[in-house]
Amino acid sequence: MLTIAMGCCLHLYRVIFGDEQTLRVVMTPTTDKVLLVPMTYAAVTGILLWHRVKFANTPHKIFFTMALVYITGSVPLHIYFGLIRGDVRFYLEFFPMWFSYLLFPFYAALLTMFSRLHYRS
Fold first, then answer.
1. Structural domain contains residue 61
2. How many angstroms separate the CA atoms of 65 and 22, rounded?
3. Is residue 115 classed as helix, strand or coil in its secondary structure?
4. Average pLDDT per consecutive 10 residues, the chain (121 residues; last block may be shorter)
5. Could you tell me if 34 and 78 are in contact, meaning their C-beta atoms sit under 8 angstroms apart?
6. Whole-model pTM?
């Protein structure tokens, strides 16, 4: 949940203050490296715990799996641009502002789903 909350805050800052201010203040290579830690943890633990999750129904299972693919797929992207290249400008150039708006309901749904997860013993 920390990963999603951090991402939500970064996108909210972008929407309020714009791309240039976001790059100067909050979306820096250092921020990307910090975000990479809980993101990698969430990806690894999500993969390892997937078989223990008690899914309420098929749509729940699909949404959880989509979330896991989203987080896991983001890890190599952040490793390359944050760690290897040290240039996070790519995110704001590749993903237009409207993408941030699309993520808000997605993030809200993720936070709700993750807060209600149950696991098999």
1. yes
2. 30
3. helix
4. 92 97 95 94 96 95 96 96 93 95 96 93 83
5. no
6. 0.88
The domain tally of the chain equals: 1
90-108 in b/e burial notation, b at 16+ Cβ within 10 A?
Answer: ebbeeeeeeebeebeebbe
Q: Which domain range does residue 101 map to?
A: 2-115
Question: Residue 55 in contact with residue 115, Cβ under 8 Å?
Answer: no
Burial (CB count <10 Å: 0-12, 13-18, 19+), residue 51: exposed
120 is a domain residue = no
Contacts of 39 (CB under 8 A, 6+ apart): 3, 71, 74, 75, 78
The DSSP string of 21-85 is HHHHHTSSHHHHHHHHHHHHHHHHHHHHHGGGB--SSHHHHHHHHHHHHHHHHHHHHHIIIIIIS
121 located within any domain? no
Cα dist from 81 to 18, 75, 88, whole Å: 20, 10, 6
